[in-house]
Amino acid sequence: MHKVHNDLADFDLETLEVCTPEALQAQSVTAVLLALGSNYQAEYYLPRVRKGLAMLGDMQLSTAFQNPDFTSTKAQPKPDYTNQCVYLSLKSEMPLSQLQQTFKQFERDCNRQRLTEPTMANQIKKVTMDIDILMVKPFFIKNSLSQETEHKWSKEWIIMADRYPFRAHEKAGVKELITSDIFKVG
Question: What Enzyme Commission number does this protein have (predicted)?
Fold first, then answer.
């Protein structure tokens, strides 16, 4: 078991700053909270992507939840998704834009097809792997003379505006990670 710092245990999501991904592109981050999802061969693709994520740093996983596709209808049923949240503490800080590209490569390595060819209207889209960044922990630089932190962000964790408010399975995964014993380790 990896030792993960007490990064998430003492905050309330409602008090965190929410920013657009575009505003954070150049910001380096030290940790992220991710949402993973797959509606096709999740038992194969989730372990595969977790192995790639583990190479980037220490991680903690929530329970994997199976959820109906929220776009499914009686007229057009869709396969259930398997979703899981991941806390990833990076081995070294990395610009958010670079991390996003790394995650897109992980999706491509799982044969993720983003563009759909013109096909029959009722064809179901198979999503082998979807990796969404829910929250980021920016890299802060300490000023050695004044011991002040030099950054423009008022909070340690920032919620990605394009993912907020979180869906029910994301809230459940984030809550599980926040309250798990792993985040109570000093």
Answer: 2.7.6.3
> How does DSSP assign the chain, residue by residue?
-----SSSTT--GGGSEEE-HHHHTT-EEEEEEEEEEESSSHHHHHHHHHHHHHTTEEEEE---EEE--TT--SSS--PPEEEEEEEEEEEEEEEHHHHHHHHHHHHHHTT---SPPS--TTPPPP-S-EEEEEEEEE--EE-TTT--EE-S-SSSSEEEGGG-SPPHHHHHHHHHHHHSGGGG--
Whether 24 contacts 166, CB under 8 Å: no
Residue 55 scores a pLDDT above 90: yes
| pLDDT tens column, 13-46 | 777 889 999 999 999 999 999 999 999 999 999 9
Q: What residue spans define the domains of the chain?
A: 15-114+124-184
**Per-residue pLDDT tens digits for 114-169:** 655 555 555 778 899 999 999 999 987 554 554 444 444 435 889 999 999 999 99
Superfamily for the 15-114+124-184 domain: 7,8-Dihydro-6-hydroxymethylpterin-pyrophosphokinase HPPK (3.30.70.560)
